[in-house]
UniProtKB/TrEMBL annotation, chain A:
<protein>
    <submittedName>
        <fullName>Putative spermidine/putrescine transport system permease protein</fullName>
    </submittedName>
</protein>
<feature type="transmembrane region" description="Helical">
    <location>
        <begin position="242"/>
        <end position="263"/>
    </location>
</feature>
<keyword id="KW-0812">Transmembrane</keyword>
<feature type="domain" description="ABC transmembrane type-1">
    <location>
        <begin position="72"/>
        <end position="260"/>
    </location>
</feature>
<keyword id="KW-1003">Cell membrane</keyword>
<feature type="transmembrane region" description="Helical">
    <location>
        <begin position="107"/>
        <end position="131"/>
    </location>
</feature>
<dbReference type="Pfam" id="PF00528">
    <property type="entry name" value="BPD_transp_1"/>
</dbReference>
<dbReference type="InterPro" id="IPR035906">
    <property type="entry name" value="MetI-like_sf"/>
</dbReference>
<dbReference type="GO" id="GO:0005886">
    <property type="term" value="C:plasma membrane"/>
</dbReference>
Automatic annotation (TrEMBL), chain B:
<dbReference type="InterPro" id="IPR008995">
    <property type="entry name" value="Mo/tungstate-bd_C_term_dom"/>
</dbReference>
<dbReference type="Pfam" id="PF08402">
    <property type="entry name" value="TOBE_2"/>
</dbReference>
<comment type="similarity">
    <text>Belongs to the ABC transporter superfamily. Spermidine/putrescine importer (TC 3.A.1.11.1) family.</text>
</comment>
<comment type="subunit">
    <text>The complex is composed of two ATP-binding proteins (PotA), two transmembrane proteins (PotB and PotC) and a solute-binding protein (PotD).</text>
</comment>
<keyword id="KW-0813">Transport</keyword>
<dbReference type="InterPro" id="IPR003439">
    <property type="entry name" value="ABC_transporter-like_ATP-bd"/>
</dbReference>
<dbReference type="InterPro" id="IPR003593">
    <property type="entry name" value="AAA+_ATPase"/>
</dbReference>
<keyword id="KW-1278">Translocase</keyword>
<dbReference type="GO" id="GO:0016887">
    <property type="term" value="F:ATP hydrolysis activity"/>
</dbReference>
Amino acid sequence: MWLPAYATRSERLGRLFVVLFAVAVLVFLIGPLFVVFPLSVSKDPFFTFPIKEYSWRWYADFFENTRWTKSLVNSLIAAVFSTALATLLGTLAALGISRPGFPWRKAVMALMISPMIMPVVIVAVGAYMFFGALGLTDTRTGLVLAHAGLAIPFVVVTVLSALSTYDANLTRAGASLGAGPVSVFFAVTLPLILPGIVSGALLAFAVSFDEVIVALFLTGADQRTLPVQMFSGIRDQINPTIMAAASLLTTVSIALFVLLSLIRRVRRA
Amino acid sequence: MNTISLERRRLGDEPPTRSAAEDMVVFERVQKTYDGRTLVVEDLNLAVRRGEFLTMLGPSGSGKTTTLMMLGGFEQPTSGRILLEGQAVERLPPERRDIGFVFQNYALFPHMTVRENVGFPLRYRGVKGAEAARRIEDALEMVQLGGLGERRPAQLSGGQQQRVALARAMVFNPKLILMDEPLGALDKQLREHMQIEIKQIQQRLGITMVYVTHDQSEALTMSDRIAVFHQGRIQQLSDPVTLYEQPENRFVAGFIGDNNTLACELAGTENGLVVVRMQDGTRLLTTGPAGSPGESMTVSLRPERLGLDTGSRQGAHNRITARVLDKTFLGDRVRLALEAFGDARLVASLPAAEGAAIVPGCTVAMACAAADCRTLTR
């Protein structure tokens, strides 16, 4: 398979092993989806295989129950605002960092990326203590700020990668032709790095929409997001509606991912 | 002499006063360092005349591009002044200098059409509507790209992109146009074609151009004057013919064209000619600066100026007996590797017909005019 004709027997064996291993990894990663989605359309209130009868009742239950719909709305609000904030700040940060002569670039980058690497629970506890003192726990503002903090590194990384292929001479050309820095940014730089910014924004949205730990610490009953609602749902009573919610979350994530791939394809063309 | 020579400035003389109307750009004691230790540009003094095509020529790292970037406003001089039409511009941002810049990679805006690219500088100068459209068309016509206005840069060939960049840099009638190795990415044939075309446009419009290149033949073809840069200094500033015929120092002699550089010492002067003694004692009549007798110096001699001694040469000239080490056939010419003056090596380039009978190992009588032997003291 994809080997030259002169490959030896051991090379062929090795290649076969690599392919099998890769398939196994993919099955392991994607497998849960093949449990969650069928269960969400099973009529049976207990998690049993094989599925005897199919039904959308758990989806109906999801959209009729205000606890679920409210958490969905909460999630969307938190995701939209934290995405907007993270995209704005992350893009500005990336623009600054990419400038030649930016001081302590490595240190600043490390700090900027740290929310990506740090255990989320530590960020959550820190945010809980800090925001508590400021009266920001159990508020949407607090959640949006914390989620924006988690999402900024994703925007910084994607915008920096877009800027790495951006030719700094274009900025110089714009200036030499009479456009000031702000005009050059909007007329030249922004249109060319926009795909990177949109990719960053989609990732930021996904980060906030799927995030559960920080949300657990920072939200009260009124701001409870969908993942938090699922989490407490699992603790209280196992109910197939959770499977419907999980399927919805997964669908949103897949949609974001597809959008991201489309943008990257357009960018390359 | 319109330019400030480096020699004068080193001696601390005041620069000669010149009218602002004549000089488009003046660099005054400009220095540039990036790291605070090494000077990329050391004490640059240079005047660019209005309407001239001035080339800054030099190897990479010689300071020529840095000088161009300082003039364009993309780098700030560490010290010194840059005057544009008599006004100091070191603190003026590029967008307010009114200078057209053609970049090495063209730097066309990939998301805009050719017309939008060329119209870009007009947008920021309040030129709109029919007037803008007319000027864009004129500029595209000038570079022979009429009808390609709706294309994107990626749909154009390298030569066409180069023309768009030129049209965009000229459409707003800037005070001068700077070019940073603009032909480097083109193949040889197209490059030679564009050299002539750029030069013609420059002459037709009478626009001032400052051009950076490391290609000496490009510089000789296009320029009114050439400033040869090396190690952050201008080694020589002259018109192409003077630069070729009368290099002022060893670097210029070696960098512009092929040259034989031979060690010698000064013997004296005779009828306005400089007499030097080669290492084997042979006396050579030369021209150029002379130092004090006994001083060691260098003689430069172009390979094509060293011919077979036919005994019919006019004026003061030298006879050189040389042994042929090697002969290379180049089509229209042959190239001889010679040994003369003891064990000094030199190269001669002869028309192929003249060199046909010469074989390696034989001894040949060569001759060269005193005017073609240039003494170099530096």
